[in-house]
Amino acid sequence: MAEKRNAKYFITADKPNLKLPSYRLPVNPDFVKRILHVDADTVPGAEFYTEAKWILPGSKDEIRQVDSHTHPFGELIGFFGFNYDDIQDLGAEIEFTVDNETHKITKSFAAFVPAGIQHGPLIIRNVVRPIFHFAAGDCKIYE
């Protein structure tokens, strides 16, 4: 079967040799499963970056996603739990600091952090159900 013309726009894994900034701390691959990272290197002409992960239950330790940092671009961050009986229930606790104000979140949510605003650390605790996490920013390459 011939390759479809627009198949290049469907991304199903991280780009080869993905390099992330130093403040993006390594995470335990038993409980955090990266899905993909998309930017202008992955899809030429992309005007944004995005990434997605699954966060799985079972870790006895907190999962620290990032330390405090800023970007020269705005960033959309989302966490969504999978409780079919209560779609707002995150199934975990997320501690997220934005502009030196710490929030403890137990509901599915999305947040927009404007360019230049400090955010992090972002810490995930007590995961009892899988969580889908994504982030996106209005930059061609994540920096």
CATH superfamily: Jelly Rolls
Whole-number tally of structural domains: 1
Strand order of the largest sheet: 1-2-9-4-7
> What would you say the CATH architecture is?
Sandwich
What helical percentage do the residues reach? under 10%
Textual characterization of the structure:
The chain has 143 residues and is mostly beta strands. The protein has one domain: Jelly Rolls (Sandwich). It is 0% helix and 43% strand. The protein contains no helices and nine strands. The chain has strands at 32-38, 49-55, 63-66, 75-81, 89-98, 101-107, 109-113, 119-125, 131-137. A five-stranded antiparallel β-sheet has the order 1-2-9-4-7, with no helix packed on it. Strands 3-8-5-6 form a four-stranded antiparallel β-sheet, with no helix packed on it. A hairpin with a 2-residue loop joins strand 5 (89-98) and strand 6. The radius of gyration is 16 Å and the shape is globular. The N and C termini lie far apart (38 Å). The model has no long low-confidence stretch (mean pLDDT 90).
Q: How are the secondary structure elements laid out?
A:
Layout: E1 32-38, E2 49-55, E3 63-66, E4 75-81, E5 89-98, E6 101-107, E7 109-113, E8 119-125, E9 131-137
Antiparallel strand pairs: 1-2, 2-9, 3-8, 4-7, 4-9, 5-6, 5-8
Structure characteristics:
143 residues, mainly beta, Jelly Rolls, 5-stranded antiparallel sheet, 4-stranded antiparallel sheet
Concise synopsis of the structure shown:
With 143 residues, the protein is mostly beta strands. The protein has no helices and 9 strands.
